[in-house]
Amino acid sequence: MARAKIDTATEAAIDWMVVMRSGEATPDDALAFDRWLQGNARHRQAWQQLAGPVDRLLGSARSASQCNPSQAAAIGTALHDSARKSVQRRQILRGALAFGGVAAVAAVLADRRWPMRDLVADMRTGTGERRDFALADGSRLLLNARSACDVQDIPKQRGLRLRSGEAIAQVLPDARPFMLYGSHGHARTTAGTATRMLMRHGVQRSLAAAVEGPLQLTAVNGLQRLLEPGKAAWFGPEGIEPIAAPAASVASWQGGRLEVHDRPLGEVIAALQAYRRGLVRISPAAAALRVYGSYPLDDTDRALAAIGQTLPVAVHLHSGGWLVRIDLA
Fold first, then answer.
1. Hey, which of 232, 235, 238, 242 would disulfide with 209, CB 3.0 to 4.6 Å?
2. Which pLDDT does position 10 carry in this prediction?
3. DSSP letters for 54-74
């Protein structure tokens, strides 16, 4: 099922909805929200489309207190907790948006915990979770946060299909080759060779790395390339493009760190977003900055602080860090 597309103004309205209905908005948040609201007619329209259903739901909760005391008590407790607990706050907001018929927006918020598109995958991880899986042949699969894989039943071969995110397969030697498929092509091991292979799913293209042992990489357009051990390359409709960064650096997330060498800041933020249940918004100008460094994935607050201290950007935290905005300083 295709995911509903939400425009930029509505995405921003969701961010502001979380902040302004959290019970934790500061005077600075209120000023920034007012500037956003008055800055564009589309912003005002998007806000009105979301705020109305939420406020109607809260009004219904107040009315319930007069006709159903037990229900009112439950609603009142939830609303009280939502002002101080981010998980419950998101649940209330999610319910309010669904009540108003804006289910696609509710899905965006629910998706921050578990990617909705991957609920039926054979193997999957949620936000901030790395997980190791045992495969039928004794090989192992490590999934990065917000990633999913399916087992491919292929005669005379072993195989997986990466649905989303990033994976490292530790492949045992076997007479059958091991295939790792993605939406932009596939990587194949040499039969009888122990291999450690990585694949990262991207929107326009994907990344493959021969962490240990060689890989035969085939792009969706049919072009092929042998990746020697320690090498990595982008692949997709435009072909195969080797990268300078070593495969060990590309696979650094398995140890809980993100190592980047001359990559756009937008890529760094995308990797950190997989480990953060809140929302991170970065301006196009800030996303284009080139970055070198190593960042902790399991402590995104520290990673964001390091970015703000070492790059010419301003990192704005709202509602206790649930919403982060990054702009050029």
1. 232
2. 75
3. HHHHHHHHHHHHHH-HHHHHH
CA dihedral 165, 170, 175, 176 (to 10 degrees): -10
| R_g of the chain, CA atoms, integer Å | 23
For the chain, what is the mean pLDDT? 81
Give per-residue burial for 50-86: e unless 16+ CB within 10 Å, then b: bbebbeebeeebeebeeeeeeebeebeebbeebeeeb
Residue 96: pLDDT band with limits 50, 70, 90: very low
Length of the chain, please?
329
CA distances from 158 to 80, 107, 122, 197 (A): 52, 35, 15, 14
Structure tokens at 104: 């696609």
Residue 324 near residue 281, CB atoms below 8 Å: yes
Per-residue confidence (pLDDT) for residue 221, from 0 to 100: 93
Give the pLDDT confidence of 223-258 residue by residue, as tens digits: 999 999 999 999 999 999 999 999 999 999 999 999
Q: What single-letter amino acid sits at 239?
A: G
Helix, strand, or coil (residue 46)? helix
In degrees and rounded to multiples of 5, residue 263 shows phi and psi of -115, 155
C-alpha span between 214 and 197 (Å, rounded): 9
pLDDT at position 112 is 60
pTM given for the model: 0.69
Q: Which residues of 2-40 are buried (b: 16+ CB within 10 A; e: fewer)?
A: eeeebeebbebbbbbbbbbbbebbeeebeebbeebbeee
Element of type H or E holding 288? none
Distance CA 72, CA 60 (A): 10
Compute CA 170 distance to the chain's CA centroid, rounded to the nearest angstrom. 24
